[in-house]
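Case study B.
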Amino acid sequence: MTVLAVRAGLLLVVLGLWETVGRASNPLLAVPPSAVLPALRDLLLLRSYPDLPANVLLTLREIAAAYALAVVAGLACGFALGFHWLIGRAWGPMLAALYAVPAVVWYPSLMLFFGLDAASKIAFGFLLGFFPVTLAVLAGIRQVNPHLVTVARAYGAGSLTVFVRVMVPAMLFTLVGGLRTALALAVVGVIVGEVLGSKRGMGALINHAYGLLRTADYVALVLVTLALVVGSDVVASLVERRARRWNE
Amino acid sequence: MASSMAASRPPLQRRVRALQLATVGVALAVWETAVRAGWIDPLFVPAPSAVGAALGTMGDTALVALGETLSKTAIAYVLSVALGLAAGLVVGSVRLLREVLNPFVMALYSLPKILVLPWIVLLLGYGTAPAIFYGTIHGLFPVTVLVMGAVRDVDRTLVTVARAYGATTWQLYWKVLLPAIVPSVVAGMRLGIVFCLLGVLVVEMFAGVRGMGYVMSSFANGFRAPELFAATALVSAASIAIVLVLDHVNERLSHWRG
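Model:
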């Protein structure tokens, strides 16, 4: 209880500081919370950016496409690497080396190839989401107790049965965690892509507000985007909890 | 058993290496043929040979840009490790602080920092300062979070015993906590370097006038695909090399710790 009170107090202190500093400084650079609220109202009532819903929808669609592609490709790649030991031994380290490269390195090439529209954002979100899925599958396969597989086989279970009844339940825990990380990264990828160069979507609106020094609108747009990010993570955590309960 | 393991190891290692080399070779060959045969437009995806040639002609300019990016990254990295270690030690070891701040730290760690980048650029302008600042906040959080967790999980009895023998607070941190969390610090340092480089590159792409991120986005905007691919390869190779060196240091350190 005290912890919650201290947390709330800290939040209030930060907001108060922001308010005083924001009022004292250049309105183009700092926006106090009292100025953000009207901007947020104007934004949500579609006064400042009438095309907000279309842009939100576009960003959500890009995220959905990137995530779906990342899950499918990541699962396929992870199982291929996990089940074929020589390929896994050879390609696993190569994949890990690529994972050590900061992903934004690939973004200019993706933009050149896919253009400024949605495709380059989807490709970048896919790239970020793909690795956690693949790595989670590999880690999950390593976690499966080989005795369980042996016993199942000894009792006459076929490959498909072993996979569905033994392997998937045993690795579900790790797999679901990886899928959740992948969603968070796909979201980040799409937003980073939009901010770095786009004509539509939340990132484009943010850049527009920033470019015109409409700082209050910029902060309001950031808050809306954060709501998308947090919302997607809340959905993912609910799904994760459901999957874990089903597993037990 | 041991001897058969030893005997089977070299051929296995060699088969893995061979497969890796073959993969790269086949990929390059297929890519080269695909471009030459006209299946891929070289305007967007240049042939490996063209990329190699571009690497040769870029030469010094690319290396200068890479040097700028890496020196910004180095400053950001030193700052983020020092600040992250300090913050993680303090927040992790004081219970009230940890319980109050933990959700805030986790939120700041996981939220996309790109959203505050325009504001940072408004405040700090174009150039080196925003790159170092943004790189630092990118690298800071992984280090802080890992150190916080490690300090929290340090064996309580170690602390109690040190206290019972009259260790001062300074000694407690320096002689007990710090040595106990070395593996997490190293893990954080390994994560942190990639995050710092990422942050610096993003700022250079968004609001840069120099550095590899700027060079790459201007190649992309100018449709100079061979140069763009060569620059991408150069940055990737540099970051892989840095991570491999850190991994090597890590391995040495774990040998030394026993």
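The mean pLDDT of chain A is 89. The remaining cases will be described in the next quarterly update.
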